[in-house]
Amino acid sequence: MAEKKAAKAKKAKARRERSERRFEPGQTQTNNLAVIAGMIGSLGLGAGVYAQWFQDPPLGFASWLVAGGAVVLGGALWFGDSGAVPVRVGDAGLAIEKGSELSRLAWCDIERIYTEKDELVVKGDELTLTLPLKAHALAAAWVLSEAARRVPEVLDVQRKLADELPKPRETDGTVVKIDSLQIAGKNCAASDRPIAFERDARLCPNCAEVYHKDSVPKKCVTCENDLGDRAVKV
Questions:
Q1: Which tops the pLDDT comparison, 34 or 104?
Q2: Please, which contacts does 221-229 make with residues 24 or more away whose CB atoms are closer than 8 Å?
């Protein structure tokens, strides 16, 4: 009997483990052009350096080759990397990787999801994240799919967009465990009680709303899903 209870508890804990999918940016026409331009710029810069400092006598147009190659190479690096960063979509909301840092917007903090030009805009009260649709079509599809399930009231996109994006599949992206979230300093959504220590926090498994362990309601005040003992420890 004790072994069955332990196995059941272990299984329940496994079900509550938070995870998200990590998506690398896809190759776009802009990126392809940037690669070609980078190659041309590198060749021009290399030829200019050789003609200026290794050719005897130096060629008269060497300085132009150096300057032109540097400009083309710099432009290729600038435009080729524009918006091309990994993103994460999962239990904790949407996150954009900036080097070793994550800019994260939880589902409960999202006020509106809409499109602007060629970007999917995920707007919160204090933070707004954008996804370039061409480079992150798959991640955008997952954002819409997860939002429709967790916080459908924030969606402000045409059905046509969802139809044009790839269909989410369980094999998409790389599933990674969510190790930590910045919770300390936030207030409980039910009691407004400050959460001084992360061990005192509990999260809604659906929208990631934050509660104090002593003030967890039966239903989440944000998404209205059943909560109670389903609340997740941080």
A1: 104
A2: 221/189, 221/190, 222/108, 222/151, 222/189, 223/107, 223/108, 223/150, 223/151
